[in-house]
Each structure stands twice: as C-alpha cells, then as structure tokens.
Amino acid sequence: MTEVAKAYIAGYIDGEGCICWRGCPTVALETCNPNPLMFVQESFGGVVKKRNRLTKANRTVYLLAYHGQNAIDVLNTIIPYLIEKKVQAESVRDMYELNKKLNNEKRKNHI
Q1: Which CATH superfamily includes the segment(s) 3-110?
Q2: DSSP state, 57?
Q3: 89, burial (CB in 10 Å: exposed 0-12, middle 13-18, buried 19+)
Q4: Predicted confidence (pLDDT) per residue in 5-25, tens digit
Q5: Which end of the chain is less crowded, N or C, counting CB atoms within 10 A of the terminal residue's CB?
C-alpha cells in the first residue's frame, strides 16, 4: 500500500470513522457514499454492508467495520497519519496488547 493510500485512509477514518473498544478493538466507517469504503475494503479486506436504515434525507447508509486483530492491523497501518483520533487509536491498540498479555498469563496459570 502506498504512503498516499495510508494517509488517505487515515484522513477518512479521522473524519468519518469510529475507533473504539466494543468488547474488542473496533474501527468502523459509516457513510452514504460507498466509494471511499470500497477503497478501504480493497486495502484491508472486509465487507461493505448496506444498512437497513436511511438518513433523514432518505439516503442509503453503508458500513465497513473491523474488529479484533483486523482492527489492530488497520490501526497499526494508519496511526502515523492520524491527527484527531491518534490518541484513541493508540489507546485501543495498547488496550488490545495488554488484554492479550493478561489472557496469556491466565492461560499459563491454568496449566
């Protein structure tokens, strides 16, 4: 993936995306224009879904979401280019890594 593509995706997620922890790391994009989502999908995989709801202006809503390790892969690629959501992305990534370490320790203690 080119640096320009990474920067474009980061900018799109910075403006239109959601980076959060919903039981696991989540990166979600929801929009009325599916074209940017298709570009992200081509870069990271996933499925652009047509939502079963319309906006107030009767426009169709599309969703592309990544969860777990897939979300972390997206974040690790775009974090250097994020501005508004950089701290959120780093926090979600760090929580994921800490959670993995804690789960590994729990497994070791049960053996």
Answers
A1: Homing endonucleases (3.10.28.10)
A2: T
A3: buried
A4: 999 999 999 999 999 999 999
A5: C
